[in-house]
Amino acid sequence: MEERRRPGYSVHREVLDEEAVDEIAKKSDSKSSLCSGPRLKSCLLGSVPVLSWLPRYSLRDNCLGDLISGISVGIMQLPQGMAYALLASVPAVFGLYSSFYPVLVYFIFGTSKHISLGTFAVLSVMVGGVTERLAPDSNFMIWDNVTNASEVDVVARDAERVKVAAAVTFVSGLFQILLGLVQFGFVVTYLSEPLVRGYTTGAAIHVIVSQLKYTFGIRPVRHSGPLSLIYTVLEICYLLPKTNIGSLVVSIVAIICLILVKELNAYLSKKLPVPIPVELLGIVIATVISWQVNLKDKYGVDVVGLIPSGLQPPVLPDASLFGQVIGDAFALAVVGYGIAISLGRIFALKYGYKVDSNQELIALGLSNSIGGVFQCFAISCSMSRSMVQESTGGKTQVAGALSAVVILFITLWIGTLFEDLPKAVLAAIIYVNLQGMMKQFMDIRVLWRSNKVDMLIWVATFILTLLLNPDLGLAAAIGFSMLTVIFRTQLPKYSKLGQVPDTDIYRPLEDYDELKQVPGILIFRSSATLYFANAEMYQEALGEKSGIDITKLLSAKKKLEAKRKRHEKKNAKKAAKRSAANLVRTVFLLNRKKIFKHIAIIEMDAEPDPSLPRAIILDLSPVNFLDTVAVKTLRIMWFNYQSSALFLGGVIDNLQTAGFFNDKVTKSCLFSTVHDAVLHCQSAQKHSPHEVSVHIRTQTDPSSQSSTGRFCRIIQQKIRQMC
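^ STAS domain-containing protein, sequence as received from the core. Prediction below:
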């Protein structure tokens, strides 16, 4: 294989520190915040994106694809909206409302061209947890004089649950709007992909368990709080002997048929212009069979029931409920936004456009808050519907608006035809739609091979979601994920850098065999940022890598300083250290006066081992911020190592605002590259000759010229060795 040709380059310039860079580049402190006509227009178009793209909409290029896509997605919205309404514990028709109003609002304010907004299983089950907690069946028990037994007032219960769902949806929308206005779109960065996938998988288990009552035709007691999933499963197992055979048979047949047709869709995906609307066919066929056979009366199969035609008038949510749902609303806001923005960015990257994270927050917030006024429950985007919208040719948000028109048509004129639809069929639709989330269990094996910490986050998030329910589980999972980040910053990799021969590139010495260490210079780097949690470890690692025990060094400095002061008080002529030049002059003076008989050299401090550092360079390029503790640590290190320490700058603003610089420590100790710092150190060493001290012990006076001459020759020989 031919070797890849590498172009070369050559740069000739002076060594530049940060003071020189600021002077050459003319650093500016001014910030422009003036309002102007173009800026106001840009803000308006950014706040209402439909004004920017709809006037440029191309009927020729986009109309047909958006039309087919909108009809296809609208057909999917019908069964999914009704099924997910069961998850939210509200009547099925409110799932249709939730597939209409919010979609129209997102058409105006959203920035993603391909995501399909509407009901979503995870959010629906979270809403259902709130509605059943605040409006349980036990609060609506009435006495039936005919049967002489108590039963649930379903009408009153459902009306109260709709109020609760609308309230929590409205508050979650307000949270999203507020977060969007304060530019808090980056909050989604705390929802890593392993966390989101582990969370949605755990939430999918909650969804499946919540639908088992329709599959088996039983009525388990509602449990809430931590471990409620386990209690519910135990309750269902206890009630299995009371299974309604009719509901079970309907559910099994529906699941098998749905899976077979979906597999057929996948097999014929390249041949079919649009996928077979299996869910729509399923609910139509099931409704007809239920109506003809009379499944409700003959076999006790639970059906959807009354579906009113028309739309509901707007009603302000009950403000008295806000305080009871505020925590759930925040969880809904974060989860719904995280799922929507993640999917939106995938499509944006694929088709080359930008999704504004803050505008998406506002768009979702308006969709939920306005939807709450029209008695909808919380919405987000659905992966299955979004994939259908893309694969059938949808290119703009017009496809979403057309799907809302389809839902409007169904709600006004066709909805009442589905009153005999068995709830077991809707549960079967939910099970089949969750098979994609169940495949996410395969992530564990992939993450085990690629990143074990991410695998740990996935598993921990899944378990926490199962045990603590989706709301508390999300908070606990985010906390656990943050702990892994903190632990990883407390266990960074500390490295000594060496130079790639004949280049200005520096890499860790332990990772490469052909690197060479710069003589007399230690280049030290940490893989993590520097802050209060690891500042002390950073200082200890530097001492270990440099071979300098800073504690002993400081102790020796204090002892030498105390000794120097004592000697100065006794006799200024008896200094503790003498330079080599003064010593040689003294030797020649003694030679002329002949006052020594014998001189013996006891100790001489030679030049240090080249492997020991005479200068230390701290590579701070991986550091993205410094807190006050980190700056204080760097200041202490500078004082301890004195002129031996140099800093490679990347966090200059943090150092400056924290008061690191003064008259003695300026930006001249900061450099933009490691090589600049190395060249500076080497230049400083050349212009700063090494000092030596010679300690002698004299005995009797000399009797001959030879002893003094021999001493001079020894001194000269030692000095030549050191130099």
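The first helix runs from residue 18 to 25.
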